[in-house]
Amino acid sequence: QSDEEQEDQKEQEAVTNQQDLLLYCQTIINQYSTSVYLENKASVARDHLANERTYLAWLRTSLSTISVGIGITQLFRLQQKNAIIPHHPQEQQEARLGQLIGFLFMMISLLFIAFAFIRYFHTQVALTKGYFPASRSTVIIASSIL
To answer: Would the pTM of this model clear 0.90, i.e. be above it?
Structure first.
């Protein structure tokens, strides 16, 4: 065999090895994938993407609520540091109140994440069956918490 033929054969083997590796990786990914494959009829893709956007909106709200909680906690902490009379009982009480309010906002944020998680998967299951769940309870609870 000539040098050119040997080079071509090596290149062909390298390409075959890469394709085999790619197929192996794709099989592993498909085996452990949690994705649901649906036929895209009418508005299936649009509905599922809207469900994802709703989940991300709940997540964004949750992160904002955590930020408010941390901000309130830090605000009361700074207020205590800049107090005229350090370690005054009233200042300590206000700092504890700030911690409590901040903690409350963080717990509300965790509730929002739980609602988002439950709502996302509940809606996804309903959409795959051809239904759409109206979320009255989630809206009522979230509105009453805030």
So the answer is: no
C-alpha distances in angstroms, 122 versus 8, 30, 91, 118? 55, 23, 46, 6
C-beta neighbour count of 58 within 10 angstroms: 20
Residues 100, 98: Cα–Cα separation, whole Å = 5
Q: Is the pLDDT of residue 71 over 80?
A: yes
Compute the average pLDDT of residues 74-85.
68
Instruction: Characterize 112-144 residue by residue with b for buried, 16 or more Cβ atoms within 10 angstroms of its Cβ, and e for exposed.
Output: bbebbeebbeebbeebeeeeeeebeebeeebee
How many Å from the N-terminal Cα to the C-terminal Cα in the chain?
Answer: 79
- Report the alpha-carbon distance of residue 135 to residue 137 in Å, rounded: 6
Q: Say which range, 38-42, 83-87, 109-113, has the weakest mean pLDDT.
A: 83-87
